[in-house]
Amino acid sequence: MLKLSKKTEYAFMAARHLAMNNSGHYSTAKEIADNCQIPYQLVAKVLQNFARNKIATSFQGAKGGYKLNRLPDNISLIDIIKAVEHNYQVTECMQEDNSKSTCSHLDCCKIRDPLIEIQRKIDNVFVQTSLKQIL
Amino acid sequence: MLKLSKKTEYAFMAARHLAMNNSGHYSTAKEIADNCQIPYQLVAKVLQNFARNKIATSFQGAKGGYKLNRLPDNISLIDIIKAVEHNYQVTECMQEDNSKSTCSHLDCCKIRDPLIEIQRKIDNVFVQTSLKQIL
DNA sequence: TTATATACGACTAATTTAGTCTTATTTATT
DNA sequence: AATAAATAAGACTAAATTAGTCGTATATAA
Ligand code: SF4
Ligand code: SF4
B56 and which of A74, B50, B60, B124 could share a cystine (Cβ 3.0–4.6 Å)? Predict the structure, then answer.
């Protein structure tokens, strides 16, 4: 319960790697997979998510790879999380994509409002921590 | 990801019910299950966890049930969570029962220390919220 | 033209969470 | 003493989520 996914951990590691190798060549998925000892295919997807979400820029083809778009100081952990996870909410009823919320308690739920507040506070933890702080 | 389990949500609901029905009779698992519209067996287990962890006292037999041991003001959400979940940590390597931590990255993990700090902050959110605040 | 890299979706396997079933025990009531 | 109502606890099943793999297409430097 309350556990970060491996995907998110890999995203933190990858972002960290990009931040620390930001001069000259572009970092590749393979390089990061080797360096962080994580599955290539998973990092690859994480990096693609970074590119789609404007956290990094990708360069295709040989000598290609990724580089960060902003300074580590200006990238917060919540940006990284949002790039790779669509459901990082504390309850089912707060998840964005479930347009038709499925929780049967929704009508009469007494704990929802307090949990929205909890969510806000947890969000804040990630908003307030920048990539620079985890280098 | 980062989602509270239904078990924890049910625990919050049950604790809430106990707090609001604290005069006279003891609340039963059935009563709470009906009132909160949650599966009887699950609330039953939650309440047993409350009793084991001294959050509530149980009375067996006919006319039995549960009552809170402390005022809602003196029960924090973290107490409730700890009573029903043994793994509420943000990463595998912080989980208490995994005596032999299984994460293969443990030796060279660069994100562990920052995540321990994140964990501390998230803990704080639950430590600082009391049952009274969610009534 | 080849080697190296990103892009992306489908698929499978593993793990975790949610829920059910069963049996034993305790105690008030009749 | 018998019965009914309740907690106690563990095994089991089902559902959902997460983790990881595979295959194929596309882009680009050399
Ligand atoms: S409505 Fe209540 S029970 Fe349902 S997901 Fe939201 S908080 Fe949890
Ligand atoms: S060691 Fe690192 S990768 Fe492994 S669980 Fe802990 S934080 Fe995550």
Answer: B50
